[in-house]
User: Fold these one by one.
Assistant:
Number 1:
Amino acid sequence: ATTLTGDVTMNNKLVVYGDVRVHSNGGTQTFGIYKGATSTYNWYDTILAKSLKRTGDTTFTIKSDTANAGFSAVHMTWNDLRFYTAQLAGQSSDLDVSDLSTYERMRITGSGNVGIGTASPSYKLEVTGTAYVSSTLGVGGATTLTGDVTMNNKLVVYGDVRVHSNGGTQTFGIYKGATSTYNWYDTILAKSLKRTGDTTFTIKSDTANAGFSAVHMTWNDLRFYTAQLAGQSSDLDVSDLSTYERMRITGSGNVGIGTASPSYKLEVTGTAYVSSTLGVGGATTLTGD
């Protein structure tokens, strides 16, 4: 065995066919690579195409690549951790650290923020680009969405749904194409909400093979429908309701019972019955017997 108690300077290579260990009884020695005042060094394994590079006192990079294929890298500084990947035809394996910014994929900042697709994340997780969750996404706190949200499947909310703002200008709407036609249907309670065109709005409650009740609103009247029908399906269209209209309040304030076009404040087509006193404040005209 050979013991060296002083400094050793070598002007050429040192090849060791075996382990290299640095230790002492006190355990204070460390193993280091140093080059001049810049503290810059490179270590490269030509067989495994892996490299280790240190530039300055705070920058450290580990990179694994294959010539003319691509690379992956981890870049560590005093305040962040960066991850890089690339698959490049013709790319040499000695790509410099300064060239890595184009291929940065993820960064963990000193504050603990994680950025994917961004080098300066402002949140604990910030994704610049499209994110996909194949299973359940749980959110423990309030959620703020600043952009549009498109859903290809159902949205289930176990609680209230509110649309509001400090200015109170937002509204809640359901819209489908240029026709402004939509349907909402509750299969459990057999209730539906339907809008056809810009002026027609219907709320309907029914039970399959039993009947239904409905309220139909347009810009100039309010209509009420009821029916008890054997064999009637629960998806009766608005256009089929006229047969079952029971009362209408027109835009002029006339109320018609049994008629869709009342000419008086109250017009009843059919028999009317008053079980108590009927008071008439003005003149009374009787046109029948």
Number 2:
Amino acid sequence: METAVNIAYACNIFENGMDGLFFVEGTDVETIQQELRSAIDKMKPQPLLESDPMNNYFTTKPTMPFRIPEEVPNGNYGLIINGYSLAYALEGKLELELLRTACMCKGVICCRMTPLQKAQVVELVKKYKKAVTLAIGDGANDVSMIKAAHIGVGISSQEGTQAMLNSDFSFSQFQYLERLLLVHGRWSYNRMCKFLSYFFYKNFAFTLVHFWYSFYNGFSAQTVYDTWFITFYNLVYTSLPILGLSLFDQDVNETWSLHFPELYEPGQHNLYFNKKEFVKCLVHGIYSSFVLFFVPMGTICNSVRSDGKEISDYQSFSMIVQISLLWVVTMQIALETTYWTVISHFFTWGSLGFYFFIVNFLYSDGLCLMFPNVFQFLGVARNTLSLPLLWLSVALSMVLCILPAVGYQFLKPLFCSLTVDKVIDRIRRMKHPLPPPSQTKLKQSSTPRSAYAFSHKQGFGSLITSGKFMRSKKRLLSFQK
């Protein structure tokens, strides 16, 4: 255990000046339970009460899944437990006592563990904390732990490649974990949340138009859009813009991500996509579908061309709604994109051009004459695209749909700012850029720690680890004489 403590201090898991370290070395359930409860009593200002949910768990088994409450200790503490004691601590009801103690500590060290125990610790956290877990290892004895965690990371070492082959990510040095989490992990989370929000929004806006149309078609099976538009909407027209965002978008570059690790916190609390954000997408989609249906309806209703011909037909209305929808969802993803590249511009604006190319091809005279039952919109593209009312309807629909989104993005940092908003504002106010991130310097300990960890038998270990000879100069001088 002495080796584990020294490594913990070297890795900054434990820090100098901590309020205390708790060693769990019991050889039976009663002793281990007493050690854990003693640690909790010391970390909490008040002793455990009879109404404490953890005490109730030891008397009656709860019918619903139990969840460890969030508790704040009265200082910084560390917990060290060996594999022999851990075998008892992971059994039955004592596992909750162990997890509660561990969650109140700043750092926890489990040493001399078996591969099964490593996996059991991960499963314990997944079961009661409902947290996303990450396990990192470099040997075959870490494979079970890597597989048990949500995210497994393998390090290439002299012990073999078993850990790398069974992991989700692998690299050569442990220091790369910082970049994996704070840079690529955070970017990936932001992109995924934007992808989900945009995906739900564009499909709500696309689908709910039929709800408004049902009041005019007698609730029949008649669709607003052409069959080919329905086929290509998610497959071609709106797939490339979200692909570009999912691959290249960055709210903050890698340098700032490493300088401000607090940017990682929103992902831990799942702030960017949750039930609240889903409801926002639903409301936004309902509003957009309302605008996308009734603005074109009001624009072409009882309207005529310059030559006196009526244009309020089903096919013209369908195409106006199609074009308005594509412009609205494309502008929406353009607002969500914070990092533009050449590929992003090509995917976003090229998808609109690709739509007009496909429409002119599908609605051409040749295809409609050869396959009249398949391509029924004969000449609709040519006639509709030449109407000024079309572009008036598209512009009006786009303004009404995008204006609330622009206002929300403008007012949100003022009244409900997130961590990334504060960091971006701080970056804009800085006159000089920050230097490149440097590695954290380890603080030298003012209190000497013994390196006694070479034998399984303690022997004179209590004398060596006490540090009395190192702390007392007089005793040291008398010893030399």
